[in-house]
Amino acid sequence: MRRTNLSKLIVALLAVVMCMACADVPSGENYSFKDGMIVFDEPARVAGQESMLGFAAEPIPNVRVGFIGLGMRGPGAVNRFTHIEGVEIKGLCDLEQSNVSKCQAMLERASKPKAEEYVGEEAYKELCERDDVDLIYIATDWIHHVPIALYAMEHGKHVAIEVPAATSVEECWQLVDTSERTRRHCMMLENCVYDFFELTCLNMAQQGVFGEILHAEGAYIHNLEPYWDSYHSNWRLDFNQKHRGDVYATHGFGPVCQALNIHRGNRLTYLVCMDTKSVNGLELAKERMGVQEFANADHTTTLVKTELGQTIEIQHNVYTPRPYNRLYQLTGTKGFANKYPIQGFTFTEGMLKEGVLPEGARLNPHGFASDEIEAAALAAYKHPIHQEIEEKAKQVGGHGGMDFVMDYRLIYCLQNGLPLDQDVYDAAEWSCIGELSATSAKHNSMPVAVPDFTRGEWNKLQGLKFHTK
Ligand SMILES: NC(=O)c1ccc[n+]([C@@H]2O[C@H](COP(=O)([O-])OP(=O)(O)OC[C@H]3O[C@@H](n4cnc5c(N)ncnc54)[C@H](O)[C@@H]3O)[C@@H](O)[C@H]2O)c1
Predict the structure, then answer these.
(1) Is the bond into 323 cis (omega within 30 degrees of 0)?
(2) Probe residue for ligand 1, chosen from 121, 136, 162, 193 as the CB with the greatest number of ligand atoms within 8 Å
(3) Ligand 1: does its nearest atom lie under 6 Å from the Cβ of 337?
(4) Residues sharing a CB contact under 8 Å with residue 167, sequence separation 6 or more, in sequence order
(5) 131: burial class by Cβ within 10 Å (0-12, 13-18, 19+)?
(6) Is there an atom of ligand 1 within 6 Å of 162 CB?
(7) Which of 25, 82, 91, 182 has its CB 3.0 to 4.6 Å from that of 33, i.e. a possible disulfide?
(8) In this predicted model, what pLDDT tens digit does every residue of 119-154 receive, in sequence order?
(9) Residues 327-345: pLDDT tens digits?
(10) What are phi and psi of 248, to 5 degrees?
(11) Nearest protein Cα to ligand 1, atom 43
């Protein structure tokens, strides 16, 4: 009897000690604490579902498109598509008739056939259900991206989704699983990877000009003060008011992930995030929303580690007065590239292709290369995609032409039955940073594992390829 009481006491004491030990261990609805790291649940792949790595659909010579979301961003895409051969714009959809009408007028001015109009919160469903549409192009606010994309894929459509494709880890898995199950492309419309400096640097990196890349930086630093009034129903401030972390990481993160071959022989392993208090964001929310709290920091910094031992730093700040900046910086063992705030390179002996260095030019391993050397290198390493389409892209425009390069490549790959430049795993990896960074910041910058959306196949493809026929 006495022994039983003693054992009960020991069990009770052990339970108390275990509870005390657990008190600081973070766990959420969809994550737990393992080996010093916060780990999000990773759903197993359902039987019969296959990877989309290297996926190519049947060629679609004439791509029939439906556009959903025609606010500030969408109409530019409609206009760009009127300049691409072998495209038919079948449907235009928005919450506001006036936005649809403006795009319809744009088609008329371009002497294109009238598109069917869809207006209202659920009108996108009718457009997705049509059997004469191949691609749904989504430029709505962030919270509508995934529900619309899933519905479109379920109805047999390829999807292209504005950035960020998804707002949570759960939504990232939904995109991956639905794309894998329906065998439909799901591409995020990350345009900055096609910018002229970034794509040239990618070409240099792939040809080894920087040696081994060890560290990379990217950012979205853009004071959105002039735009807050223009978002439909205040969706963006409303989202930021509710969400901590780097909620708009992809412009800074995408281009550097490409240079580091993420899920093409390398992978993201874990991240830590630290953020400032919210001052300007909170002020905005008080003035515009009449609320006393604001989750998003004025400045958020995230550090991500890769399997191959590199680090990536990304920053987000849409609140304070300072010049626009996406950083885009590559630090390699043999060279350096930087876009913002000052564009330039550091090159070292023997790393540039023969004939690139102007005669008599000298390299400085602790300074920027001269303007003459930079111009020669930019010309010598111009990416084949830019060689092909730069002139037209600059005429049509969209952030100086990069938006047109993106749309052109999407349609070119669909028309020719090629794998797309960005796959669903890119969309998930670049978008998941929002919730992962928020979770790290919430737990005093604790490391958070980055889910492997390829489910172990990150080493199957070697290096990023832009496919051509
Ligand atoms: N890649 C870039 O450079 C870039 C630049 C700007 C915006 N964006 C992205 O584009 C998207 C749109 O941003 P924006 O600035 O145009 O915002 P916006 O508020 O001007 O436009 C959003 C539009 O979506 C429509 N919409 C909302 N719910 C809808 C629904 N259920 N069905 C149909 N339409 C719906 C609204 O009516 C509105 O016209 C966002 O994802 C944003 O991040 C990307």
Answers:
(1) no
(2) 162
(3) no
(4) 142, 143, 145, 146, 239, 243, 247, 431, 434, 435
(5) exposed
(6) yes
(7) 25
(8) 999 999 999 999 999 999 999 999 999 999 999 999
(9) 999 999 999 999 999 999 9
(10) -140, 65
(11) 163
Please work out whether the CB of residue 95 comes within 6 Å of at least one atom of ligand 1.
yes
Query: Is the beta carbon of 180 within 6 A of some atom in ligand 1?
Result: no
Q: Which residues contact 402 (CB under 8 A, 6 or more apart)?
A: 191, 192, 194, 195, 196, 393
Residue 220: CA atoms inside 13 Å, Cβ hemisphere, count? 21
Q: Name the 3-class secondary structure at 118.
A: strand
Concatenated DSSP letters of 301-334: EEEEEETTS-EEEEEEESSSS---B---EEEESS
β-bridge partners, 186 = 159
Question: What is the radius of gyration, based on Cα positions, of the chain?
Answer: 24
Classify residue 37 as exposed, middle or buried by CB count within 10 Å of its CB (0-12, 13-18, 19+). middle
Q: Under DSSP, is residue 94 helix (H, G, I), strand (E, B) or coil?
A: strand
Q: State the chain's mean pLDDT as an integer.
A: 95
Q: Which amino acid is at 116?
A: E
Q: Whose CA is nearest to atom 31 of ligand 1?
A: 121
User: Best of 79, 95, 431 to mutate for ligand 1, by most ligand atoms within 8 A of CB?
Assistant: 95
| C-alpha dihedral, 340 to 344 to 348 to 352, nearest 10° | 110
Confirm or reject: Cβ of 232 under 6 Å from ligand 1.
yes
Q: Which residues contact 356 (CB under 8 A, 6 or more apart)?
A: 376, 377, 380
Q: Which tokens go with 77?
A: 């895409």
C-beta 139 within 6 A of ligand 1: yes
Tokens of 49: 């579902």
Helix or strand or coil: residue 68? strand
Q: Which two tokens stand for residue 157?
A: 């459509």
Q: Model confidence at 29, in pLDDT bands (50, 70, 90)? A: confident
Which one-letter amino acid corresponds to residue 81? Answer: F
Token pair recorded at residue 285: 């929310």
What is the Cα–Cα distance from 441 to 41, expressed in whole angstroms? 19
Tokens of 376: 């020669």
CA 195 to ligand 1 centroid distance, Å: 21
Residue reference for tokens 């990023």? 464
pLDDT at 48: 87
Token readout for 73 is 């961003």
Domains (range + CATH), the chain: 193-390+423-449 (3.30.360.10)
